[in-house]
Each structure stands twice: as C-alpha cells, then as structure tokens.
C-alpha cells in the first residue's frame, strides 16, 4: 500500500434542489479527477442547502431517490475514484420523526456506499450579529460515530459543528483513523473566528490528517457560508487551503507515513487516564 495519496476537496455554493446541486458539483469533481485525485471530498449539504422550511420539505427525499446522491454514485464509478459526499440532507427513515438526516456517504470506486454517518451534534445558536440557527428543528441527530476503511487507511467521519467536540475526534483516532473528514457549511462569523484554529487543533490532538471541504458564499436561501476549504497535516501544519469562498477544487497529496511519525513523537493517544470529575463549586 502506497503511503502517498492524491486527494481533492470540492468547495461549493450548493443550490436549493438536488438536481441543481448535481449540475453544480459534477464539473468540479470531474476537474478533481482529471487532476489526479483518487479520493475526493465534498462539503456538508452537497445535495441541497435550503433553510426555508416549506421549500426544504418539498426538496428532501429518501437517500436512494435523491438525484444528487444517485448521480454522484454513478460519477464515482465512471471516474474510478472514491468519493465522500460530505453530507446529503435526506429523509432519516425514523418513523414518527419527520426531521431529515444530515448524512455523510462514503462511496467506493464502484459506486457502492460503503459507510454512512449521521451528524451527531446539531447547531442551535443565536449569533451576536442577529443570525439564529435551529438545526435541531429540521435535522435528527445521529446516534453513533463512524470510522470507515479505504484502500489508503481508515477515515473518521464528522460533519461541521462536530469539530467543536474534541472527544469525538479522539475516539475516531483511537479507532484507527489516520484521516478525519470535516465537511462543513460554517457561518461567516464563526468561520472567520474559529474555522482554521479548530481544524488545526483537532489534527494536533489526534495526529491525523484533517480534510475539511466547505460551502462558501451567499446561497439561494440567504445564508452566507465561510468557504476556505483546508487540508491540515497530523503535526497541525496547513498543507493546502483556499483563501476565498468561491466554488473550486483544492488539490493536495497526503504522506500517510506522517501519521505514525506524529503519533510516535507525541504518543498522546496512549496516555489517557481515568479521573474523577470536578466536584460541585462551593
């Protein structure tokens, strides 16, 4: 197994329907494959970004009926690449709960879905600039973490707001992940303040490559996302990044031997200790 892996992150400004989303992202994925990428990752909400509840309800469908998911599976097989749909907004399949799932789908070079991960942490916040987000009103949180096998090593799956929960990343690393995906649609205020810092911290803490494809710009539903897709190495170094919020392709080559080197230099994953929680303040 080669320790060198050519990858590409796709930065998008996803439209509000799956058909339009596929037309938007497909040329970028083809460009990435033409550039030699064997593993390609897209952002959160690759199949649609629509927060207007009435329109969103009409747009969300089952995973196996979503035009973008179907099209991207065929595209992965045609191009012979592994493709992570950073997330697709699809019906959750839980009876009695009409909220959707925010679901990462890892697709192999035959077009087969080999792993699924539903976003664990949903984003409910009131920002200082007046923006309000209640992801929990439309997204059902997942129940479990996911580490998936690839031809190059194990990949941990996370989505966007998950990046603020370091214990999740530590569990993924301890389960063997040498790469951790963080597809996102970060807001502009939080992106400007925290995006790169959080990603570099998660890479340092885990000794893993962090791969963060992002949405960017002003979307049809009025939201603004930060963009600035980035690849971070296991020592916390920025390997590649886009310094803008426009759609595009970010290429990088991962030297996967760097994971073991980082984890040997600072063997923190072997040094966890059980401890008593802090007592109640007095």
From TrEMBL:
Q: Which Pfam families match?
A: CN_hydrolase
Q: What is the designated name of this protein?
A: Nitrilase/cyanide hydratase and apolipoprotein N-acyltransferase
CDD domains, sorted: nit
Identify the PANTHER family for this entry. DEAMINATED GLUTATHIONE AMIDASE, NITRILASE-RELATED
UniProt lineage: Bacteria, Pseudomonadati, Pseudomonadota, Alphaproteobacteria, Caulobacterales
Q: For this UniProt record, give its keywords in alphabetical order, as a comma-separated list.
A: Acyltransferase, Hydrolase, Lipoprotein, Transferase
Specify the species. Brevundimonas subvibrioides (strain ATCC 15264 / DSM 4735 / LMG 14903 / NBRC 16000 / CB 81) (Caulobacter subvibrioides)
Organism domain of life: Bacteria
- Annotated family: Belongs to the carbon-nitrogen hydrolase superfamily. NIT1/NIT2 family.
